[in-house]
Amino acid sequence: MTTPTTTPTTTPTTTGAYPDLTRFDTFPKLVVHHAAEHPEEIAWREKEFGIWQAFTWQDCADRIRGIAYGLKTLGVEKGEVVALIGDNRPDWLAGAIAAHSLGAISLGVYRDALDSEVEYLLTYAEAHVVLAEDEEQVDKLLALEDRIPTVRHIVYSDPRGMRKYDDPRLISAADLLAKGAELESKEPNAFKEWVEAGDAEATAILCTTSGTTANPKLAMLSAGRFLRHCHAYLLADPKDADDEYVSVLPLPWIMEQVYTLGMALISRMKVNFVEEQDTMMNDMREIGPTFLLLAPRVWEAIAADVRSRIMDSSPIKQRLYGYGMRVGLEALDRGERSGLAYHLVLRALKDRLGFSRVRSAATGGAALGPETFKFFLAMGVPLRQLYGQTELIGAYTIHKPDDVDFDTVGVPFTEEIEVKIHEPDSEGVGEIVTRHPNMFLGYFKNEEASEESLNDGWMHTGDAGYYDAKGHLVVIDRIKDLASTARGLRFSPQFIENKLKFCPYVAEAVILGGGRDYLTTIICIRFSIVSKWAEKNRIPFTTYSDLSARDEVYKLIRSEVEKVNDSLPEGQRIRKFLLLYKELDADDGELTRTRKVRRGVIAEKYGEIIDTIYSDADSVDIDTVITFQDGSNQRIKTTLNIIRLDAAAGEPAAQAAE
Fold this sequence. Notes:
Helix 12 crosses helix 14. Helices cover 37% and strands 23% of the residues.
């Protein structure tokens, strides 16, 4: 690997439509600047009780100032950690920026985090104040009792259901603002002084890493570096005050903060918050976003829902859809766009999804299968793949608008971003390592991990990849997840899993085969769609477990697996599969909060099932109890069939066909 050289710690002065980041180098400074220059311009919108509520830049500045004064009365000082937990709401952003104005550090906690996860993060970060959205989150915090000893205050925004509590740590957002207003009346210039004294190079954000193998680490991010990196991103994918963004991905995730805190504060792109996750698509249609960032799982779910709705439509609509998509994909493969297919079918579908105004769309956080990618490109959605890590302040590569390749993640934003392949093999495949001027400051309270990741100034991503002939970066899989069969055949589980998940009936798949003679898979059905299919075909069922065990469902999934096999080399084809009796769940530790599979957990938790798949058995008997998030239990007693496909290595074809 090339020896790193000294790199600059600042980017050139921002010019043109964007503010000067050498002057406005923190989040509060940008908010105050926009409130002075564009006080009546809409910054945020929130849908509540079916009505969109707009917040101007002046409204945002007033709210942030009020919360900052309130936090000051609670004793929040420079360098202390303020945690935030709840849905995506304006007050989440306002609370984080208010903490930054005091020199404090924000830490986002996923709203669906389990008690043990919340306990770990709050105690490890030594959070002193938690801004919680509602009763659900307060319950979670109070249940931890003395296991979060550093937490002095819990501020809640929604007062509904809170009268029954008398914990001295609790204070409502309304009371916090009242206390802040009292302090402001005594010290009217204090907020201005706090903001002006803001240190752009000090840690402003603690952001959790993905934590696929253990508890997440906390990456320390400074506001100055964060904003300069977002500016580099904006040079590659420009935004301005006319752009509309709908915030649906969890705010603790680095990329959602890149858009809502970084890019939005620089470009004045409007940020919209949906009422509920269940209303996301309807709310999105009402806004008509010009830019979209969705996780692969969301893109997959939207594509699956489209195909599910087509199955329920009239025969003529099904034929029109089939024709339009087929012609659209064929044109895409030729590097063209079918005007006939688009105007006849695909434009209406795009409009139905609320994507008519989308000028830029992105996916990131994990790989998106090529089939899903092509599905949206054929529809006319200008989708591009991002690649990055929390430590690198999210994404740092993207496709150029006129050079989109669904098999790659594009090229670095700017020349300042260096991406190399460390110790490549004969085919050019090695570990992806990266450095740029605005990387993270290290891991919070973990110097050993910081030194390990930042080897010689380069961030070792742990991902395997290579550069193709066009100079695009291709990401294969996590290095630790790349596997070889007992016969020495290397394969990427993620690549095959993404092909399976393009099927509307498959929600999750885990490819097995490392150290084995052949590949198999555990599949979780997409219950919302398979249940519709079952109802349409008059197949009775009661629960997820019951439906996934039906012979008809096995036949349905078998046909889809065989289609995927047809697209794979002989040695990478799936020889056996079974349908799991439950969905993989982050609450059970099987997925991360960003929906990445924890393969180690799967291997340990379902080890007996996996061993049985690789035996001569035709089924696995299950008798277990699953616990739901509300604490209720359900006993699962069922039989999982093991379906054999093509002849597995070393076994007679006749046996495999039984």
